[in-house]
């Protein structure tokens, strides 16, 4: 099991090495910006979809294009592109699910002209039939642009690219809830590495890990919590969670389980099935729903998995998450579920305030 976890950690910690390995094999890479970029289409057309969620880098050139109040995920994405960290990629697909993502594509065209920008324009009202049709038209636009880069679209191949990763990632999420010996850092590696490996390779490792965990007796219990946010992969943050003895029994994280909650329905038209999948997705700050079912989902999941509290990791300047937090806080208070908030960004080097906050949270959970 340690060998599997180490492989996943290497991929999560060294995306450039992964990228160079695939390029040396003659494979073409298409970068996938957050969130819900249609990786199934990219994979089915013969490319390696590779996550581009920014990184822990100083912001210099990106400031020429971005105001200071844009989230650091997008700013660091642009910074890495300008600095050449993504050199060798055939294109980048950027969706339009928040105000910041709607603008970064135009900046990318001028700042990183060597890597073509492919827009994926999603509808806000995605559930009605016209929303499904609009999403499908967006996918068709992506397909046309990928065909210009040498990809070939096939309904059959798309059908084969849709189901397997979702099932494996949902299963590992369920198992991690009852295996506190898997640390927060290792949990992060399991999900983060999925963005930097081929679907076949990563799913194979996850399925092997599932087999190992099912045969293993869980270790002593820790304090169970639900974690929520856009991105929670900061090594210092996960180290503190492990130091405090906090066990993530479920996540509401855009870069983790949110990616795998919804399956595409069985349809002869694979592209339409993928559009219907997006229509049925929910419980996420960047997916418009005036009823905000995400709030109830967090409380219900915390209860179902016997979590003692909820940790919200707020990405600085992420408006959709900030708007939702007020409702999440009220719902947790009404459910008598302890909640705490920590704010992070890609440039944080000191986590003392986060540590103090989590120490107080841990002591509250012990009461």
What is the CA-CA span between the terminal residues? 34 Å
> What share of the residues does DSSP label as strand, in percent?
5-15%
Mean pLDDT: 94
Q: Can you list the strand order of the major beta sheet?
A: 2-1-3-4
Q: Got a strand count? A: 8
What assembly state would you assign to the polypeptide chains in this entry? single chain
- Put simply, the count of helices is 15
- Main sheet? 4 strands, parallel
What is the helix fraction of residues, given as a range? 40-55%
Order of helices and strands: HHEHEHEHEHHHHHEHEHHEHEH
Structural class: alpha/beta
The 3D shape can be described as: globular
Q: How many whole angstroms does the radius of gyration measure?
A: 20 Å
Q: Which consecutive residue ranges, at least 5 long each, have pLDDT under 50?
A: none
Quick overview of this protein structure:
With 367 residues, the chain is α/β, with parallel strands linked by helices. It has 15 helices and eight strands. The two termini are 34 Å apart.
What does this structure look like?
The chain is α/β, with parallel strands linked by helices and 367 residues long. The chain has 15 helices and eight strands. The longest helix is centred in the middle third of the chain and has 20 residues, at 129-148. The two termini are 34 Å apart. The mean pLDDT is 94.
């Amino acid at each position: 099991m340690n060998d599997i976890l180490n492989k996943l950690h290497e991929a999560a910690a060294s995306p450039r090495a992964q990228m160079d390995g695939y390029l040396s094999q003659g494979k073409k890479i298409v970068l996938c910006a957050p969130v819900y970029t249609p990786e199934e289409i990219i994979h089915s057309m013969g490319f390696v979809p590779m996550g581009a969620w920014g990184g822990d880098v100083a912001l210099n050139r990106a400031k020429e294009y971005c105001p200071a109040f844009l989230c650091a995920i997008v700013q660091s994405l642009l910074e890495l592109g300008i600095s050449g960290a993504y050199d060798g990629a055939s294109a980048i697909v950027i969706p339009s699910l928040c105000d910041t993502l709607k603008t970064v594509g135009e900046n990318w065209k001028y700042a990183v002209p060597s890597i073509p920008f492919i827009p994926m324009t999603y509808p806000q009202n995605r559930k009605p039939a016209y929303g499904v049709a609009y999403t499908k038209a967006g996918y068709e636009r992506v397909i046309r642009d990928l065909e210009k880069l040498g990809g070939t679209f096939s309904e059959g191949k798309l059908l084969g690219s849709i189901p397997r990763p979702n099932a494996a990632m949902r299963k590992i999420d369920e198992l991690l809830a009852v295996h506190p010996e898997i640390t927060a850092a290792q949990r992060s590696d399991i999900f983060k590495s999925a963005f930097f490996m081929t679907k076949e390779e990563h799913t194979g490792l996850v399925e092997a890990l599932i087999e190992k965990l099912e045969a293993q007796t869980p270790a002593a219990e820790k304090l169970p919590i639900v974690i929520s946010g856009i991105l929670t992969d900061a090594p210092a943050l996960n180290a503190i969670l492990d130091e405090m003895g906090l066990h993530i029994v479920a996540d509401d994280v855009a870069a983790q389980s949110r990616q795998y909650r919804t399956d595409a329905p069985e349809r002869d038209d694979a592209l339409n099935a993928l559009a219907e999948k997006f229509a049925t997705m929910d419980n996420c700050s960047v997916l418009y729903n005036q009823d905000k079912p995400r709030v109830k989902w967090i409380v219900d999941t915390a209860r179902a998995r016997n979590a003692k509290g909820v940790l919200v990791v707020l990405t600085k300047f992420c408006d959709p998450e900030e708007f939702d937090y007020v409702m999440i806080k009220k719902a947790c208070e009404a459910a008598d579920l302890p909640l705490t908030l920590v704010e992070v960004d890609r440039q944080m080097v000191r986590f003392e305030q986060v540590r103090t906050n989590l120490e107080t949270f841990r002591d509250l959970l012990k009461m």
